[in-house]
Each structure stands twice: as structure tokens, then as C-alpha cells.
Fold these 4 entries.
Entry 1:
Amino acid sequence: MAAGDRLRGIARSRARRLRDSGLPILQCALAAGLAFLVARDVVGHPLPFFAPIACVLVLGVSVVNRLRRSVELAVGVSVGVAVGDLIVVVIGPGWWQISVVVGLALLAALLFDVGALLLNQAAVSAVLVATLQPPGTTAAFSRWIDTLIGAAIGLATAATLPSHPLTRARRGLSALLTELEAVLTGTADALETGDAEAAEQVLTRARDTQGRVDALTDAVDAGFEITVIAPLRRRHRGELGRLRAVVPAVDLALRNARVLARRAHAVVRDGERPDPELVAVLRRLGSDVAELRTELTRGESTDGARSALIDTAGTVPLHGGGYSADVVTAQIRSMLVDLLVAAGTDRDEAVAVTSSTRRDG
């Protein structure tokens, strides 16, 4: 059964990857062909292999085509080809010439005060120029022009045919909150049944969420960059701003969930008797997270989730029924603050709400 679940999980992951990457792959493939066509038939270069190479390097097949990444790659490949051509024309090809070309390409790229991505691309492009064919003056100039054509078409494609800036961000947020809901309900089940193995599985699941948080942050930032280069997408900046404000609060909630899952595992392992109301609160909080997920991913008002979270805060017992269970209770209160902030509540107000609604037992 466990093996079957893993296979189904892998199949879902691969299907999701294909769905997310379909448009970027199509864009990259079509743009590479167009770059070759323009360089060969419009500019008149007989074998413009650097045009599609530059285009592919700029666009890549990444789901998140970041503006800074594309610009860095465009500059990097152009600098590398230019330096490689100019230097090898003078000193010729050879092993020590490649060392000189790579060093000078890296130095030239450093003058632009750029990141490691551009530096690496400049060096790789210089090596390609120095080794693929001995450059003559005309060929060298042609290859640099081909590079500029490919880079320009890649950047134009990224600007005019971008992915929807909200789709990936909303999908990533939905996946994160789904995981948080599963951790909460799974913890409630493990505490209720005293199943140590189930508690350990929930803990493992909670620990695996950080990569999703990082992916969501990248998706939101990439969405903003799309709205900068694509005028038709600028209307989504407001919603992306809302999601950007939500991500840190959800990240904190997940961090608290990891601590909660670890202490819940200790509750079961050490044989503590958790308060039944603690289990009930965990289930309620899971339902609240599901409501928050629906409202945020649909771009709706979060008043419903905010009201539900405040009601849940009023049911949190002062004590959980043991040392580790008390820690679980404290983590629930911390998560309530984070989730209320994600729902649009000021943090100080959220702290006040969760403090004032504690029951006296």
C-alpha cells in the first residue's frame, strides 16, 4: 500500500511538472526556431548556430522564467561570444588561449557587477567560440550578431508570451495550505488513536514543506517580474501583492506546524494523555486552513476564514494534558496568530485576539 501511494505520488508530481512546464517548453522551442530563421533568412548567415543557442539559454525550460535571470543570461552569452571572438582572432586557438579567453570573459562580465549565473555563461560562451571553429574576422562578427539575435528574440518571447503571473503563485499557495491542513488533521488522528507510526509520518510530511515555501516565494516574485515586462498582466499586481504579503505568514505557520508535529510525536511516544479538546481544536484549525486556502486562491475576501480562526482561538484549552501536549497547545496559539495575519489581520491585533480568547479551563 505504501509503495502504491509512493508511485501515485510520483505520477502526480510528474503530471504536475508536465502541466506547469508545457507553455515554457513550447515557447522555448518556437523561439529557438524563429531565431535560426531570422539569422539565416533575414540577416543572411548560412549556419547561425549561436542564434538558437543564445535563445535557448535566455529562455531555458524553467517553469519560472525570471526577468533578471533572462537578462543576465542574455548579457552573459553576448559578452562571452564577443570576448572569445575578439581575443582568439588575435592569439588563435589552443589550450592556453582558452585559459586566456575564459579569464578575460569573466573579468569583462565582472565589470557589470553581476551574479554567478552571468559569469558562468560568459565563460561557457567564450569556450564555445574558442573551440567550435577557428574564427575569421567575418565569421566572428557574424557569430556575435547571431548571439544578439537569439538573445533579443528570447527576451522578446519572455516579455510578450509570459505565463499567467497568478496561476503558479495560487497553485503553490494552495499546495502549501493543503499540506498544512493535512499536518493538522493527521496530528489530530495520531493523538486520538495514540498511533506513534502515524505521528512520525505526519512529522516527516511537515518537514518536507520548506521546499514548497521556497518555490512559492519564487513564483510570486516571478509573477511580479512578468507584470513589469508584460503590459497586459499589470492588472494582476494588486493580487500578487496580496499573495506576497501572505507568504511570510504561511511560512511561519508551517514552521510552527513542524514543531507541533514533533511535540505531538513525543506525546504519543511518551504515553501522555492529551486533552480531547486539544484534538478537537486541531481538527477545527485544519478546517479553517481549508477555508483560508479557498478564499486566497480564488482572490476572495478572507472575512470568512478570519472569523472562523477567531472562533477557533476561543476554544483552545489552557493546558494540553502533559508537557509535550502543552507545547502543542502553545504552537496552536502561535499558528493562529500567523494564520490570522495571512487572512489580513494586523499581527498585534492577532496576538491580542488569541490572548484574550483563551478559555479558563
Note: The CA atoms of residues 154 and 331 lie 48 Å apart.
Entry 2:
Amino acid sequence: MFQFTVPGMTCGGCARRVTNAILSVDPTAEVITDPPTHDVKVHTRADERALVAALAEAGYPAERKDQPGTA
């Protein structure tokens, strides 16, 4: 699972575009978006760089959130 912060995701429409960008990389991914906090959780086997590139291409640059136990 990957967790991202997507500062440009501010509404439901943005969340749909973020979800669609991720699904373009992995159509089987499970995507959970939370526009008020700009958080995106993705359950996928896709490469993190491919997800970040797809989000940037869609106009939503993303940053990986630090996850507990990964520091």
C-alpha cells in the first residue's frame, strides 16, 4: 500500500481525476481519497514511480507520506 499527499486534490471532482489517473496505471487498484486532508491511499502492485508520474501528468503532483515503521 502507498500513501500520498496530493495538495491539489480539493474536491470530489479532483478525487475522481486522481482515482482515474491511478487506475490508468493499475485498473485493479483500490484507491481511497480524502479531499479535505489531501490524503490518498492506494492498494496496488504497481510501481510507485508510475503512480506518481500518472498523477503529475493528470495535474496532481503527489508526495509519498511517511509510513510508520518505514523510516
Note: The CA atoms of residues 2 and 48 lie 7 Å apart.
Entry 3:
Amino acid sequence: MKISTYNVNGVNGRLPVLLRWLKEAKPDVVCLQELKAPNEKFPQKEIAAAGYNAIWNGQKSWNGVAILTKDLEIIEVARTLPGEEDDVQSRYLEALVEDIIVGCLYLPNGNPAPGPKFDYKMRWFKRLTEHASSLLDLETPVVLAGDYNVMPTELDVYKPEKYKNDALFMPEVRTAYSNLLSQGWTDALRELFPGEEVYTFWDYFRNAYGRNAGLRLDHFLLSPQLRDQLVTAGVDKEVRGWEKTSDHAPVWIELANKGNFSFK
């Protein structure tokens, strides 16, 4: 099973890029972030024509997440994180796909920090951590994929000194990510490429992509049942170089089996 995560940065404005990538990469499951579209504007027909089922949780102008599958049933489980009833931002979607729970997430950016946006980010991170702990209590394998808006280590940012006061790299955020991992999750890309420079995001400014001045913001966390099922992973970096593309590139993993997991 090939599972991808992609911050598309506007699903309608980047639709030709998304459809081209789906055709070329052929992922079985896709987690999308930053749809920037209300539910009624999600391009369901075009995505269906490309061969994908979809569920989505949209929001006008901002945020928004979706899960796509190719020839696989999606059973929606949740579309919010528990813990903050008045939170109306569309940042989480959870589904059951082929006996795997797939959580698609778009963690808040948090800038400027300190400030209300950073406080919201840390509360959201706490809610995610609590929910992730409850998912680990299940017998069902889990993948938590998406744009976490955190560079976990200095290896994940081209110039660590430049980001020391950025909400994506502040000590509190990196500690929160580390605490999440300590529950028993596996960071898939770091599991396979422990000492390598791997980026998933390149800013639009200052020729960041051309200079490979990147950040690793998009992560796959795997529950213990899936660690030994992880075969390979990668970043479709070339997509970042396409015309009118997102500032993120698609990231993907491959698991050993396409379905019928039995981990009991």
C-alpha cells in the first residue's frame, strides 16, 4: 500500500498539478492539507474522474483536509480532534481504510510567536498528543500523516540558526513532537533515512527550491504494528518544480501489504 501526504496549498488553484501527480505517482491513499475551499467547492467530480474516492473537511479560504483512495473504501471516523469544542478550524480528518486508521492532519503554523497563534498551536498539539495516545490503545494499525508545521531536529532545516525564533522550530514545539514520538510512534522518513537531509517544503521566495533551501514539515507517524511493515519512503521533489505548484512536495511511504492486515 502506497500512502502519500501532500499540502496542496489550494486544491482548486493547484488542481492540474494534483491531477497530474495522481496520474504519475498512483498512490493508493492520499492525505491532502490546505484545501482552502469550502465543502461545496471541493473538486469531487474531477478527483473521481481520476479514479479516486474522497472525503473532505473544507473551510473557506483557509485550512481544509481530505483523504483520497484509489479503489478502496473510506469509512469516516472523525473530522475534529477532541478537547476544544469551539475550535472551528478544519485541520483533522480520520478514516478507516483497509483495516488501517488514517489520520490526516494540518497542525497550526503558530507564527508570530509568542502570541495567540502560538498558544493555539500548542493547545492543538496537546490535543493531538492525547488523541494519538488513545489511538495506540486500539488494536487497529494507525498512520498519522500530514503537515505538522514542525522541523523536529536541526537536520530538518537548511539553516537552523535562521529559525531559532520561528514557531516551526522553537524548543517547545520540537519537544511536543518528541513527546508525541515517545508514545511509541515511528517517524517513517527518519526511520529509513536517519542521517540524511530530507526536505518536503521550499519557500516561494529567494529561489529556495533552486538552492535546496528546504524544511521537513510533512511527516508520517506509524503505530507499532506498522513499523515492520514499512518498506520504503520518499519525497516527490520534482513536483515542487512544476508550474503553479504548491510550496510543499508530496511525501509517501510504502507498506508491505495492500490490505488484510492481521496484527492481533
Note: Residues 50 and 162 are 41 Å apart (CA to CA).
Entry 4:
Amino acid sequence: MNLILHLLLDAAVIFGLAYFMPQVDVKNFGTALLIAVLLGLLNFFVGWLIRFPLNLVTFFLLTGLVRIIVTAVLLKLIDSFLDSFTIVGFWPALVIAIAVAVAGTLIDRSAPTQEMVESGYVVTLFSMQPIS
């Protein structure tokens, strides 16, 4: 459920920013959904190969920044694959990557999975123990 929510939200963010940014062109929402799926797959299969050396260089202090930059690079890579999606320049891809990261964080905070609550990543009102 959370995966579907992330994909739909990422597609909505990409499609919405394409409407407001003249450097980004997405033909329709179906293309934005395909971009979100490809971005998720590339982040899963290739993103860690790019992120790991960069995190070693920064001593894992800039993990969030590295993740955003790698997402922007992957968006430019998807741009080269798809004819119905274009990004002119790196800065618009970086803006989309930041917006996708912020939207994903908001979704994770508002609809956490059970694993996130059990690991202590997020605290819900129902999981808090009373103080005695």
C-alpha cells in the first residue's frame, strides 16, 4: 500500500512540477507514472552503486544530499531513455529530486508502516507508552 502511495505521489509531483517548470516536459500522467516506476527501479538496482562511493567520500555525513543528487542524475538518465519526458539542464532535475524527497518524507511521516514504528524510525500516538 505504501509503495503504491509513493508511486502515485511521485508521479503527481513530477507531473505538477512539469506544469510549472518550462524546462520540464511530461506528455501525460501515465508518462509521469512510468517515470516514477522507472525512478524507483533505478534507485533500487543502480542507485546504491552510485550512492555508496559518494557516501564513502563524504564519510556518510551527507547521505541525504547524496541521495538527492543521485536521484537527479537518475532523472536525467530516464530523460535520455524516454521520448515523452524531457528535462533541459541539471537544475530542474535537482528541483524535482528535492520535491520527490520532501513528498516521500511527508508520506513516510503521515502513513508509517509497522516496520517503521517498530524500529523507532517514527513514533505514533498509539505506540507511545504512558509515563509512570
Note: The chain has a mean pLDDT of 88.
